[in-house]
Task: structure prediction
Amino acid sequence: MRSLQEIREDISKCDEEMARLLAKRMDYIGEVIGCKKANGLPILQPEQEARRKALLQEVLKGNAYEEELLEIFDSILKVSKRVQAKALFRYNIALIGFMGAGKSTVSHYLKDMLAMEEVETDAMIVKSEGMAITDIFAKYGEPYFRNCESNAIIELQNCRQVIISCGGGAVMREENVENLKKSSRIVLLTATPETTLERVKDSTERPILNGNMNVEYIAGLMEKRRAKYEAAADIIIATDGKDVAQICEELVRKLSAME
Result:
C-alpha cells in the first residue's frame, strides 16, 4: 500500500495539471470571442453549450463519480461564460423601455448565457420598502416611488458587468440617465402598443395602467415617453416578432460594435 504522502503528492500533481489546463481553456474562450467577432458569427450559441454537455455526459457515463464530475464541469462552464462576458463588456447593461418591452425576459436570458449578475430596480425597491409597488403607489404616491427608483440607480453606480432592468419610467428623470451612464450602456427595448397590451393585459402589478388597459392609452403614454427613451439610449432594439435569443444576439452584436 502506498503512503499517504505519496498519494497526496499525486493529488498535487493532478491539481497542478488541471490548473494549467483550465488556464489554457480560459485563453481559448477569449480566442473564441475574437474569432466570432472577426467572422461575423453569432456570439450567443446555446446549441453549442447543449452539445458540449451531451458530450460530457456520454464521456462520463457509468463513471463512479459521474454526478460529481458533471457538477464540476457545470462550474467550469459558468466561469467560462463570465470570461466571455468580460471579453464583451467592461460595463453594465441597463435595459430601459415601456412596460412589456421584454426587459425582464432579456435580462434573464443574458444572465443564463453570460453568467452575468442581474438586478431589477423595481425588485430592489420592493425589498427595501417591504411592500409591493402597487402598495407603494397607493400609500405614498408616485413621487415617493420615483425617489426610491433614483436611490436604487445610485446604489448601482459602482457595479460592473451587471444587467440592470429599469422600471418603465426610470429615465424620465435626467439624473437617473446621468447616473446610469456613469457605469452602463443603455439599451432601449421597444414594442408596439398592440404587442405591449398582449404582454401585460393579465398583469396586476402595473399601477400606471390601472383602469386603462387598452391600446389607445398605452400608445399615448408611450408617445409621451418616446423622446426621453430615445435620448437616453445608446442602442435601440425593436422586440416585436422576435424571440428572446434573436433579441439578445442583436443586443450583444450592437454593443460590441460600439467598442
Summary: The mean pLDDT is 91. Residues 4-39 form the longest helix (36 residues).
